[in-house]
Specification:
Shape: globular
Number of domains: 2
Number of strands: 12
Distance between the termini: 50 Å
CATH architecture of the largest domain: 3-Layer(aba) Sandwich
CATH topology of the largest domain: Aspartate Aminotransferase, domain 2
Order of helices and strands: HEHHEHEHEHEHEHEEHHHEHEEEH
Bound molecules: pyridoxal-5'-phosphate
Helix content: 25-40%
CATH class of the largest domain: Alpha Beta
Number of helices: 13
Oligomer: single chain
CATH superfamily of the largest domain: Type I PLP-dependent aspartate aminotransferase-like (Major domain)
Largest sheet: 7 strands, mixed
Strand content: 15-25%
Structural class: alpha/beta
Length: about 375
């Protein structure tokens, strides 16, 4: 048979890209280590709780109608999100996860050679989605406190820059930029640059100086029409498996994304679950409180074994390691006894790992695993 690798080679922009490598799944680890240990999955920043009860009921209730295509406009969901945030339905974008909105922003806004500025280390999809369309990712190092360095990002903007991404709080470091810094940054952006404020972990943040990006920079009186805020149902709402992301921004950007997206990127079950989840939002309070308590307990346990976790604001803890110890080595050690964490080489931090906040029981198991494995590893490193 003829070798097709040359004939059907990917377009030039894709040649150096590899498929996205998600965090290890529980099934994959079970294949590796068998049934001896309870497997606790803390490598992908999912919410540890399932869908809210109303969302689970809505999903089941809509199974019967799955022979029909969904209402492709998702008007009810867009209207609900708009009403909640003081926007119009035309300002609301939906996607198969926030991830798909990120790629659709690249497809709709970027010409080959255009530049996109973002902090680094940060969410891997930013550079990947930019490179897929032949545009140029410009990663700007975080500051010494692992926060987005907004001044350095302003300095990196050129005539070719079309987008800047601000991940707030930042994945994987968990840090956030406060309201005043963010407002000054958005105010200083040149006319030709759209700021995409990725607030995937928004609901977890309890600090007073953390901005609600939609209210403050998209629909509020100070809005300049240059910000798109992204949110997701994958984290605190417990719906990562269903894939629902949404955003609020300028209506013309939403229209451009609507042109490139697939006809039914959102599905009927996702739509029903999102509507029901928003209706039961008051039940999130307990999840926020449990997350705060869990993150604090994890940070304390990590400090106890001599590590220095980065003070974070989301549902995970990022842990830089001493010289000679890699995030891979820590992940391998914890995974050998069932606790899945994320090594951060793909995020540009090979000497760190990230652990998500689980349920109280999962936190207990992971703290026991940290105590059992890390002191020896750190001493040997
Ligand atoms: C910062 C950030 N943005 C976006 C996403 C993607 O979310 P979704 O599951 O909605 O695609 C994630 C997922 O981990 C994330 O960490």
């Amino acid at each position: 048979m003829t070798d097709t690798t040359e004939r059907f080679a990917a377009k030039a922009a894709l040649r150096d890209l590899r498929p996205y490598e998600p965090g290890l799944s529980a099934e994959a680890l079970r294949r590796r280590i068998g049934d001896e240990h309870r497997i606790v999955k803390l490598g992908s920043n999912e919410g540890p709780w399932g869908p809210l009860p109303a969302a689970a009921e809505a999903i089941i209730a809509h199974v019967e109608g799955l022979n029909r295509y969904p209402d492709g406009s998702f008007h009810e969901l867009r209207s609900l999100i708009a009403a909640d945030h003081g926007a119009t339905p035309e300002q609301v974008v939906l996607g198969n996860g926030a991830d798909s909105i990120l790629i659709n922003l690249s497809l709709s806004l970027l010409e080959p050679g255009d530049e996109v500025v973002y902090g680094w280390p940060s969410f891997i999809t930013y550079p990947i989605s930019v490179r897929k369309v032949g545009a140029v990712p410009v990663g700007v190092p975080l500051d010494s406190d692992y926060r987005y360095d907004l001044d350095a990002m302003l300095a990196a903007i050129t005539d070719r820059t079309r987008l800047v991404y601000v991940c707030n709080p930042n994945n994987p470091t968990g840090t956030y930029v406060d309201r005043a810094r963010l407002a000054a940054f958005i105010e200083a952006l040149p006319e030709h640059v759209l700021c995409v404020l990725d607030e995937a972990y928004h609901e977890y943040v309890v600090s007073d100086d953390y901005a609600d990006g939609i209210r403050e920079f998209v629909t509020g009186p100070a809005a300049r029409g240059n910000v798109m805020v992204l949110r997701t149902m994958s984290k605190i709402y417990g719906l990562a498996g269903l894939r629902i992301g949404w955003g609020v921004g300028p209506a013309n950007v939403v229209r451009s994304v609507d042109v490139v997206r697939g006809p039914f990127e959102m599905n009927a079950l996702a739509n029903a679950a999102a509507l029901a989840s928003f209706g039961a939002r008051d039940q999130l309070e307990m999840r926020v409180a449990a997350n705060e308590a869990g993150r604090t307990a994890l940070e304390a346990a990590l400090r106890e074994v001599g590590l220095d976790p980065i003070p974070g604001a989301a549902n995970f803890v990022c842990v830089p390691l001493p010289e000679g110890v890699t995030g891979r080595a820590v992940a391998d050690a914890l995974q050998s006894i069932g606790v899945i964490v994320r090594p951060l080489d793909g995020f540009g931090m090979p000497d760190a790992f990230r652990i998500s906040v689980g349920t109280p029981e999962e936190i207990e198991i992971s703290i026991a695993a940290i105590r059992a494995t890390l002191p020896g590893l750190l001493a040997a490193g």
